[in-house]
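Example record

One chain of 341 residues, shown exactly as stored in the release files.
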Amino acid sequence: MPPAVPSSLPTETVSISAVAAHAGVSVATVSRVMNEQAGVRAPTRDKVLASVAALGYRMNHLARSLRTAESRMLLTMVPDVGNPFYAQIVRGIDTVAREHGYFVLLCDTGADAGRERSYFDLLRMHRADGAICLDPDTVQHALSHESVSLPWVACCEFDPAVAVPYVGIDNHRAASDAVGHLLARGHTRIGLINSDERYLYARQRQQGYLDTLAGAGLPVQPQWVHTVQSLDYEAGTAATLQMMAQPDAPTAIFAVSDTLAIGVLSALRQLGKRVPEDVAVIGFDDIAIAAQIAPGLTTIAQPMRELGETAARLLLQRLANPAASVPGVLLQHRLILRGSA
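Predicted structure tokens for this chain:
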């Protein structure tokens, strides 16, 4: 019989040698079982796993990573962890990563190129196996020369000219759908609340807005276009108060994120404006709260969780075969109609 082990033995003191002695096998056999390697008969494997469970053994992943040059860690670099849009993407990444035996380290870069580079140092030092970057495409350009040597993919923000796998949506078309919906409702004075133009989505959505108005033969009034430097609710509120103070204020507002659009609704309530009777509002993303507010927010829905899942799969493809060509992927958006427009 295998020797008994006191039940009071702390988990962290259980060594692989103790597991081997308990199971009556060699340390090498335990190692092969724990690393899911071939060459161990099923009865022996079952005996080792029973001893692992009985002793509460936990494999030292750091030591394993030093032996195998694999950390089983994936970085997810997010410019603003407080934005609910990114939360669903991260959940999608984490789901796929865990299915394949990886853990996810969430990195808040603040859209800062220096902080992004410091996280990429973890790849260079093999402290992480791969990375998914949601930073602005303008920030990603600093890493374009390492697109082949470092295993990373771009999510939401990307430059097709850089040889990095990416996943996102057609922001220009999505913005055109949003503005087209407002035009179909009879609006001709349509304002835009845009975000930091370092971001690809901000540039593309603004261009979609401009092109759609031009296609309808409507002039663009500069005073109806406001650019803010954050996606906070307060930024949307402040921009709307300025926009609506004009004598020829818009009758509809397109905000490039739901958080900004919710700020728009707050400003219109302060001004005593009815939505959508006086001013229609449309957002972008379809975060969870968009359906809970009154009136419900009409918005462009991004497949947030699917964006994260796809990014993780693209990265795993790249890790499995670094020499393979991994294509970029554009997912579909949807116009969600609710009470605000």
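Notes: Residues 43 and 49 are 10 Å apart (CA to CA).
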